[in-house]
Structure of Tyrosine recombinase XerC:
Amino acid sequence: MDIEIREFVAYLHNIKKMSANTEVSYQRDLKKMAEFLGDRGVKDLKEVRELELEGYISYMEREHFASSSISRSVASIRAFFNYLWKEGHISKDPAENLKPPKVEKKAPEILTIEEVDKLLQQPDLNTVKGIRDSAMLELLYATGMRVSEMLHLQITDVNLQFGYVVCHENGKERIIPIGVPCKKAMEHYLESARNVFVKDQQESALFTNCSGKAMSRQGFWKVLKGYADSAGIKRDITPHTLRHSFAVHMLQNGADIRSVQEMLGHSDISTTQIYLGVNMNKMRDVYMKNHPRH
């Protein structure tokens, strides 16, 4: 099945224009499936039946794979066999009726407004590194963009005169406004710090490491973790925590969900609606603490 899997990944890359991370995930899921089936004597795609695929799903459940991992594998398997069927490699799609287990949606981890303020105060603005870090943290919280989107920003994606950034994802772009604190932090960075890091004038990445190359996810992760520790935030926060916090704080302060959906770049509003649940829990807590007849 290796050849067919490679052809499918090439199809995802060339035709579907999927991200490198998505391609890697599909390939990993399908190789695990192929290994499972091969160990049980099923090596030819034409021999794969719905029963074998259900057996693989049952195996993952018995081995206590996370429900989200199983669901992702089911999506990969369904997409793979649908592709094979459409291309005429198989006469019947054995994955057509394959169902993932129900995934319990967990409320996203968010910071309080006070915790965010404390986090944003941590960078030392007397150093070029602190000025850069302040701009990154302010931008993430001001826009709610994914860390990967922030790290792919180019200098030309920032318009400080009109107060917005242009975010690119999978061939699409969206314009996100930024507030005064973020605008000031970005101005400070571009005027005082970026040129200290960047030696190659051809480098177009907005944020770079100390060597003047584009900042990596791992590099930013270390920056965030260091400031979270110094801010005394005990929870295990990730770069995505600022995105979650942005969404919930916007809703708590009266933003409508459609606007938040657009700023986050969610194609389906049901993805954004998970933040309404967090917001409702917050309102319930406030009610129970403050209403005289709760």
About this structure: The longest strand covers residues 164-169. The chain has a mean pLDDT of 86. The two ends are 62 Å apart (CA to CA).
